[in-house]
Design goal:
This protein is α/β, with parallel strands linked by helices.
């Protein structure tokens, strides 16, 4: 039996902890022992459906109370779990079903398990020749014992972002999960007797599924789990649950903490919630913005939120979940560096005056993880030198399942190229500057899109939440950047919001623009003049 299976089943029998779901309307708590007993029934139903060791199964479900026993039931059968990307109320279900069928084909799934609120998708999948099972059907089966599993059995086939048109799934084994789980709990100083995890993270995302369901289930940790829709409907529910259950640990991407701070400021009264129990609030999955963290700490102070509770972190699906955590109790650590030297010399020189860039330190590598920075020639660079971040360790995936077959993720020495640009500080803490593929190179300078986004967000009349950008080639060989807003309700196409301040304003015919396809809707404060300027630029091409 793999260590993942043996430990999870053992803790299910011995742990007094469990998982609370159904907030805010119908909260119910199931002990991990009860989850395990339901999982044995799911395993029985899977066996009757022909699912066995080594099979892949996709899941389309929304309720954590159903997903938890389904996931464990799959692992009891020695099968792997893939959480499908979920359709929204505005999704064209037929198109979604066709795209999902391609995902199912790539991972060679034996079946798709469906539950509310996605039952409307079941007949569409069946029509495409896919075996569809329901959670209710599986739970009605007789319970069975788990099959034997090995360390290299696949636990998760985690779909990467945008895995529809060209599906790609990260292969995560039992060994990967255990290595990362043990490292994370050590890095977080987790205490099974006192810590309570509160999470709303989506279970189709690696941080939600692996980090905040599989790992708590593995250890038998106390978990309060709601859905992303619960959070979006009522952002302050997050605060209420931390207060109600004396939550000590939580996690979210930067944008969610920013939204949380806005809701606290506008809708909550000081003292309405008690957040003083929170000792570990991880910020990851996207760039950590120091200004947003500082704003959260300022707004959260009247509610008992301690600045030292914030834990900037770094990770990705390819490392199961996490690569690094900031050290417990230190809070946000900002590395302020000379912006020009960062852009031109690709070196992070500490600075307090002049043009600087403030970057969040993301902590040292977790136990069992190695991190290095390499230049374009694959040479390791010293501390504070900018390069591509590479990682190595037992948590790192061996590769991807794709349309073209299996693609290795590691080089011959076990290093995985993250595609992130960054550096290591003198004490070995990771700092991320941006993505290699997103960087705009202009006159020998590295322009990081996150800096442009930050500047654009500060301008009046710009929709921060919908801001998008991409680069295109100039006639002179440089790059320009064009801003787009996502479609607003009622619109069917993106809206062009103009050129980034300080960047070139001509694109060659090789650019990504299609003037027959895109319209030019422009923002305040002077849309008519800006529209004329954009039209003139397009004619000059």
């Amino acid at each position: 039996m793999s260590r993942f299976s043996e430990t999870m089943y053992g803790n299910a029998l011995s742990s007094r902890n469990g998982m609370t779901t159904g907030e805010p309307y119908a909260p119910v708590r199931h002990s991990w022992h009860q989850v395990h007993q339901r999982a044995r029934r799911v395993a029985g139903g899977l066996a009757s459906a022909g699912v066995g060791h080594g099979d892949a199964v996709a899941v389309l479900a929304g309720a954590p109370v159903e997903i938890a026993p389904t996931a464990q039931g799959l692992w009891m059968r020695g099968a792997s779990l893939t959480m499908l990307h979920q359709p929204t109320p505005r999704t064209d279900l037929r198109l979604w079903a066709i795209e999902t069928a391609s995902v199912v084909g790539v991972i060679e799934a034996r079946a798709v398990i469906v539950a509310d609120p996605f039952m409307a998708a079941a007949p569409l999948l069946t029509d495409l020749g896919i075996q569809v099972l329901t959670v209710d059907q599986l739970l009605a089966a007789d319970p069975i014992d788990p099959v034997d599993t090995g360390e290299d059995d696949v636990a998760l086939l985690q779909l990467t972002s945008g895995s529809t048109g060209s599906p790609k799934a990260v292969r995560i084994t039992h060994r990967n999960v255990v290595s990362n789980a043990e490292a994370m709990f050590a890095g977080a100083n987790y205490d099974l007797a006192t810590d309570v995890i509160v999470s709303w993270l989506p279970l189709f995302h690696d941080m939600g599924m692996a980090g905040f369901l599989a790992v708590p289930m593995y250890f038998g940790a106390e978990l309060v789990k709601i859905t992303p829709m619960d959070f979006l409907r009522d952002t302050l529910l997050w605060a209420r649950l931390i207060d109600k259950y004396k939550g000590t640990m939580t996690a979210a991407p930067n944008f969610a903490y920013s939204l949380f701070a806005k809701r606290l400021r506008k809708q909550a009264k000081p003292g309405e919630f008690d957040l003083s129990s929170l000792r570990w609030a991880l910020s990851g999955a996207e760039q950590v913005e120091p200004a947003d963290v500082e704003d959260l700490c300022a707004v959260g102070a009247p509610f008992g939120l301690r600045p030292e509770a914030i834990v900037p972190a770094y990770g990705m699906a390819e490392t199961t979940v996490a690569v690094s955590f900031s050290e417990c109790g230190t809070g946000l650590v900002v590395d302020e560096v000379d912006a020009d030297l960062l852009a031109v010399l690709r070196h992070a020189v500490p600075a307090k005056k002049g043009k600087t860039r403030r970057l969040a330190c993301l902590g040292p590598a977790l136990r069992g993880m190695e991190v290095r920075i390499v230049d374009e020639d694959a040479n390791v660079v010293p501390s504070r030198g900018i390069g591509v971040i590479q990682v190595r360790g037992e948590s790192v995936t061996s590769g991807y399942v794709t349309v073209g077959g299996f693609i290795p993720a590691q080089d011959e020495h076990g290093w995985y190229d993250t595609g992130d640009l960054g550096y290591l500080t003198e004490n070995g803490h990771i700092v991320v500057c941006g993505r290699v593929k997103d960087v705009i190179i202009m006159a020998g300078r590295n322009i990081y899109p996150t800096d442009i986004e930050r500047a654009a967000a500060a301008l009046t009349g710009f929709d921060r939440a919908a801001r998008r950008r991409f680069g295109c080639m100039r006639d002179t060989g440089g790059r320009a950047s064009r801003w787009w807003s996502s479609p607003t309700p009622g619109r069917t196409r993106p809206r062009c919001d103009g050129w980034s301040t300080g960047l070139p304003t001509r694109c060659s015919r090789r650019s990504m623009f299609d003037r027959e396809r895109w319209s030019w809707w422009l923002p305040a404060p002077s849309p008519r003049r800006h529209r004329a300027n954009c039209a003139a630029r397009m004619r000059s091409r």
